[in-house]
Sequence to fold (579 residues):
Amino acid sequence: MTPISRGFRGRRQPEGTAARLPPGQYETRDFPVLSAGPTPHTPLPAWDLTLRGADGKSTRWTWDEFAALPREKITVDIHCVTKWSKFATGWEGVSIDTLISEAAAKEVKTSAYVLARSDGGYTTNVPLADLTNGKAWIAFGYGGSPLPPEHGGPARLLVPHLYFWKSAKWVRELRFMDTDSPGFWESLGYHNYGDPWREQRYSGDE
Amino acid sequence: MTAPPTATRIPWRTATVASVAPETARTRTVVFDVPGWPGHRPGQHVDVRLTADDGYQTERSYSIASAPNDARLALTVERLDDGEVSPYLTEELRAGDQIELRGPIGGYFVWDIETGGPLFLVGGGSGIVPLMAMVRHRHESLATAAGDAHSLRTRLLYSSRAWDEIIYRDELAHLAAEDHTLEVVHTLTRSAPEGWSGFRRRIDKEMLAETAWPARENPRVFVCGPTPLVESVAGTLVELGHQPALVKTERFGPTGSVTPQSTTTKESK
Amino acid sequence: MPKRPNQRLEGGDISDRAVDSLRVDGNAAAGVLREIFASDLTTGRAKCAGCGMTRPVGALHVYSHGMGVVMRCPSCDGVVLRIARTPTTLWLDARGAVSIAISG
Fold:
């Protein structure tokens, strides 16, 4: 029988948030930094973003080119598999739909699966259907300011309807693939898809 | 890889608070009774797990402050502003309360008298805790004539922000007064009392050159504290000729300084 | 109620130094590593697959990410060991280590 630590409360969520919280989550007012390595510091003149098709054809945007793309402001709740959720986070970014349509003009074709690759070697896999139709962005702004490096700046993938490990920080490439390929955490016991509302945290969860 | 057999796992043990005692304004020692505790070596730490009454759990690691032969296990915890666990351990926890501990953990940052000396300990802030376990173990071993005091001669260089933030200050003064083979050197980095004639700055190369045992004596060195201090000290000691394999480090977070340092611990192969 | 370890960041300050403060020595991860091996893995010497440097596991830079433990080579920052603990399974990925030599 696990002993209860009298008087320990941890961080508590306020009333009325229950419906907004996926199962097993707690609201946080912080924005915790979880990192699997040192923070990359890629200077903007050296930064680029690549979309690469399964046939190898690719297109890339430099920072200036990326900054010239149509952008959106979005407000979303985000959910980390380590059980914290943060409501109404404000971001600014370029929709993946925009990138895909720009890439199509350069003959870069999509495939059913996507592998996001980041500075520092992190990877995560997401089905194409979870990145399109207004579900995902490459975000460069947070809370009205440029996205700071410890939160993935200059730009990170943002896929708020999945657990936040899918929102790869320091993203540099989206690689389209015909077959699914598990990324960094997906190959280490975490769920391949990661829907917080079905509490798909670990491989084997339904 | 399949899960290991349960026999090889370190179990969580229930620990009951026997007493609490403040050390400084921000730190407190908590003494636990832990039935079944297997013993530990100086420098090791424990994982602490707290469970709220709705089942919410969280874990942190803390260095063991007590010497191995003490009847009870002591942890010294510094209160971090906005911390989730440290305010509970330093302000709320009281005698009779229960938490869970797992340990002892760590085989790298450990010293006991069998390891030998001379011994040079460098601590910053709450980094003093595992070093204090070493100092206490040394003291009680020598008291039972278990070793040669001179070959185990020890110097502790301890960096604190101010005089009243020095953890274990009086106990260290008492131990050093009793034993001329133990020297304690303080440096204060933010403010010093009137009449202070000791070091008044962050640890630097000049201070280490003055206080460390000469490299040719092959001292065992243990450095513990915030990451920038540890990396700077370890790197400087290697520059001063100490063998990297004899300089062991343990880094605590969060840090007080900004610039990440590149690692300086060098390997010979 | 499922009971899973939840590693929270102590301190509310978000900054680069907070990320580097998540880096602790290898023996902060020893509790989880001990669950895998009967001997104390932190005394083993690991050869980095990235740069070939060999050093004690206890000297690797550990990033105590809430989802798992990532241990990196102090020389080249390459990932040497990755460990994740789910409610039912302990996962270890050691492809970043060419070898780990544990005496005894």
